Amino acid sequence: MSKGAKWFGRIVWIGILLNLCFAIPAMFAPDMFLAGLDQPPETSLLWLQNVGVLLLALCIFYTPSAVAPGRYPTHTKLVVLSRWISAVFWFVLWRQSAPAGVVRPLLFTDLTLGILLLLLLNPALAPENRLSLRGAGKALAELGTWLRNAWRPTWVKVMLAAVLVVVGLKGFGLWYYLLRAQPDFQGATPEEHFKHGAIGLSTESRLPYYIWQVLPTMFPEKLPGPGGWASFGFIYEAGQDIPIGFSLRKIGYPALEANCSLCHTSTYRTSPADTPKVILGAPAHTLDLEAFQHFLFACASDPRFTPANVLNAIHQVHQTSWFEGFVYRYAIIPITKHGLLKQKIAYAWQDSRPTEGRGRVDTFNPTKFNVFHMPDDGTIGTVDLPQIWNQRPRENLYLHWDGNNNKLGERNYAAAMAVGATPQSVIPASFKQVTDFLLDLHPPAFPFPIDQTKAARGKAIYESKCASCHAFGSPQTGQVTAIDTIGTDRHRFDSFTEALVGKFHAFNTPPFKFDAYRKTEGYSNTPLDGVWARAPYLHNGSVPTLWDLLQAVEKRPTVFYTGYDVYDPKNLGFVTSGPDAEHAGFKFEACLPGNSNQGHIQGTELKDDQKWDLIEYLKTL
Measuring CA to CA, how many Å separate 381 from each of 172, 375, 386, 538, 550? Predict the structure, then answer.
């Protein structure tokens, strides 16, 4: 055996041993194997063991080339090819944001072995079997001769033509129903684009529209109340089939994906009999995002969620062609179910935290656990959804509740990434349309009468007590007050970690590039523009009205109901008690972790008449 053949065989043996290091534990100790890879235990053990068997079979396939590579030249070339195929596979997964800690070592291992084997291939083979351009040309010529001879019989031509027709039709159908991209929605106005324009989420973060249509009728008992999708606090406008906050995209099949307005559009009513009025850019205080997620998870987990049942329900509202029904039955519905069950596992960490409730969301834990695959640290990051109007005067101020970033672009892309956008899926032009609209979007004026005399007195109080931290242009506005000074619930502050800063700064795939994140010592002093429409208050939504915020901590409500949209113009907030509020809202309990209503005692020392004057002025902002 030549020296080249010996070294080729040694490298193949190394590859076999590395494969066995995965195959044996995958077959006989799958739980331990998953723990070592830091993968969820819910991963299918049967399929993992099947992978182990296939790896063992691959080791057997490699063995002849490890023993005598020159004796089996074609086999030896296939061994090299298999390593390169594996390297390409791991590279594609890596680019698709698969866990880097798992995929990257496998990529570099197969790539290194592939390079070494390719370099040693010709030295391992006899001269007549080596790879060369001349040899490749000869092989192609022989293949051409064989094809010409095989093509001559009429029956072969007929069969091949039939196969090509069938494959072509099926390929066209699959392209048409799964991949064909149609132009995305373009709103006639910036407001309409904000409501329904697509920002570009990944396929895994979209829900097929026909499935969206039938889930409330298939599983009504899993809804939080009557009204179908509206029971989650989604906002429907007259003449619209989909609520504000969703874009209907057609990439093969119609599907809904969320956009910025889902979490940043609100409604209010002046009385229970009033028609809801929409406020763009306001906190979505009626939205129960976590309940929406859990409804989808519960539907996918239900044994009634089968391709046959879902397709039958779809046929009640939309008649599919035979092939479209075929694609839904064998591709779209199963993939949707698998994706939702996968998300259920990914979001299982929510079960160990207090319920988020209406108008609130955990901001950075989804990024930590589901985007960057960091270990669950037990933190609670639940906060009140913020307003997003007047972004231009906020440029260079420190953003997010804890003031961890002062770049609008980074903040916007990080928010998109948290709900499912990737560097490959995001639509920069459409996303820019939305964010440009928000630069100069102004909050609506207070919709009730204002006592100008009281407001004038309140202005002086505001300027002496509040403006230094909350007025645009003041030196402390948009800066951070230490947690020990402000005294509010620290859970959200603790949930954003130095380790997460490092993850953000290491992520550099345009247009997602992050370099301005930082770990702060407290919470940001936010401007109070449109403060009347931003109830409940504090970063975690733990105080229902501005009047309550001006009370001594022990006098603040500890139990109230959020998510009701009738407004209380006296106390400055939404109605949070009474039968209607209890029926429509979510029961907020300040005693739960992350829900504390302590802190921010500024203004609590004022006399009651001064507090009312201050509140009257705050209505004007």
Answer: 47, 15, 14, 14, 25
Sheet holding 207-208, edge to edge: 207-208, 253-258, 246-251
pTM for the structure as a whole: 0.79
CA 557 to CA 568: how far, in whole Å? Answer: 15
Contact call for residues 541 and 360 (beta carbons, < 8 A): yes
608 pLDDT more than 60: yes
* Closest to 360 measured CA to CA, from 489, 256, 192: 489
Query: Would you tell me how many other CB atoms lie within 10 Å of the CB of residue 216?
Result: 18
If residue 207 lies in a helix (H) or strand (E), which one and from where to where? strand 207-208
- pLDDT averaged over every residue in the chain: 91
- 172: number of Cβ within 10 Å: 12
For the cut 90, the answer to whether the pLDDT of residue 565 exceeds it is yes
Are 562 and 541 in contact by the 8 Å Cβ rule? The answer is yes
Helices (H), 385-529: 408-418, 428-439, 452-465, 467-470, 483-486, 491-495, 498-506
Terminal alpha carbon distance of the chain: 87
pLDDT digits (tens, 9 = 90+) for 184-215: 988 899 999 999 999 999 988 999 999 999 99
Contacts of 399 (CB under 8 A, 6+ apart): 405, 406, 408, 411, 478, 524
Q: Check residues 330 and 193 and name the one with the higher pLDDT.
A: 193
From CA 29, how far away is CA 323, in angstroms rounded? 43
Answer whether 275's CB lies under 8 Å from 215's CB: no
| Beta-bridge partner residues of 524 | 480
Quote the strand ranges of 218-310, DSSP E: 246-251, 253-258, 265-268, 277-280
Location of structure tokens 């009513």: 269
Q: In angstroms, rounded to a whole number, what is the distance separating the alpha carbons of residues 454 and 617?
A: 7
Q: How far, in whole angstroms, is CA 57 from its chain's centroid?
A: 38
Model confidence pLDDT, tens digit, residues 70-109: 888 888 888 899 999 998 988 888 877 667 777 888 888 9
Reported as a single tens digit per residue, the pLDDT across 124-133 is 888 888 877 7
- pLDDT tens readout for residues 468-478: 999 999 999 99
Nearest CA to 438 among 621, 235, 264? 264
